[in-house]
Amino acid sequence: MDKSKQKRLILFAGLLVVIILLLVCANVKRRGGKVTVQTEKAVKGRVVASVSGSAKIQPEVQVKISAKVSGQILKIGVLEGERVKRNQFLVQLDSEIYKASVEQSESSVKGAHANYEKAKNDYQRVQKLFDSNLASASELEIARATFKQAEAQVEQAEAMLKQARDDLSKTAIYSPMDGVVSQVNKKVGEMAMGSGFTLDIIMVVADLSKMLAETEIDENDVVSVSFGDSSKISVDAYPDTVFRGVVKEIANTGTTTGTGTQEEVTNFLVKVAMIEKPETIRPSMSATVDIITEAKDSVITVPIQCVTARPPLKPKPDPKAAAKARAERKKAEAAAKKKKGTEADSAAKPEVPPPPAETPKTRNAKDEKPVKCVFVVKDGIARQVAVETGISSDTQIEIVKGLSDGDEVVSGSYRILSKQLKDGDKVSVSKAGKKASED
Description:
Layout: H1 3-26, E1 30-31, E2 34-41, E3 43-66, E4 71-76, E5 83-84, E6 89-93, H2 96-131, H3 137-169, E7 172-174, E8 179-184, E9 191-192, E10 201-218, H4 219-222, E11 230-235, E12 243-250, E13 255-257, E14 265-274, E15 286-303, E16 308-310, H5 319-347, E17 371-378, E18 381-386, E19 388-392, E20 396-401, E21 408-412, H6 414-420, E22 427-429, H7 431-438
Parallel strand pairs: 2-22
Antiparallel strand pairs: 1-2, 2-21, 3-10, 3-15, 4-6, 4-9, 5-8, 6-7, 8-10, 10-14, 11-12, 11-15, 12-14, 13-14, 15-20, 16-17, 17-18, 19-20
């Protein structure tokens, strides 16, 4: 035998070995024609549906303290973390320029009043002369206009004085509420920029007695969230404690990120008020919020992995219906023969519709779509059962229709349950799976 034939034989033998190994691996879970599975019992219990999201702890009420006038910070009267009362002193800005403005405005008011008195006396004097026909009408009009102008100047000067005094009062900043200084952003010597268009935050005062967990919920989940839904809050800083909460606010408008890309996501801000909280909790701590949207008691439940999707089973023929149809057809043929004779009967047999069970049925494309189902184990046989599901938790799912309490349902493995297992397959339950289901 030449070397080329030997190489071909070796290659063929190697390929055959690989095929055999693949077949063995594909059937490694089958023992004696049986598929090894894990099972769980369908039981009555409680199912809690929830929506989860990462969150940040924030005070329910907090005020960002900023200056209404610009100036250098001369004094900060509180420390970060210190408790403050309403109207307690917080910050002092340099007030010299504003004091000078007040003095200048006061001087302007005095000058305006002096001009006003002079214009008033002049107007009264011209009025008397006009009444005695010693002054013309034009002179009276000029005196009246001068008086009105002086009166307006007094009002303007007084308004400027009021504004200057208000600016001076704003150089001292006081707390607008009882709370805790949760943040201090400025130091003595730095400038505080006062503006009606930008916010230069000096510090933050917050009421830490009422805290919120702010989370963003996906648009597909937020529709199931309602005001007053109870919640569980897990704060990272307290790993062994779960705090109770209740949904207080749900945003009406979502926030979209990644607009125009495949990563586009729209979330809605949901605020959960903490009913319970530790004394040492701080703003901006990380947390996780589980909002309970619905809960049901005493319903049939199975592990969520038990429910899979398969094409619906074809209806099986009914032997009784088929036998009845055949009997009716024979009876009709006999009656026809008796009435018309054998020749007439052979010429034209009566048309009797075939039994429905023996007639091939055309299935609609809609019927071929996968449906939710489970595999129930009875007498070592796996039977595909269509089910209707309800709410689900992270681990359990409600079975509305299709199962009874105590039914043994296939729960794994995932590969076998999702692809390999078929209706009518013989199965053997692994000890680990059986023990888990019994526990």
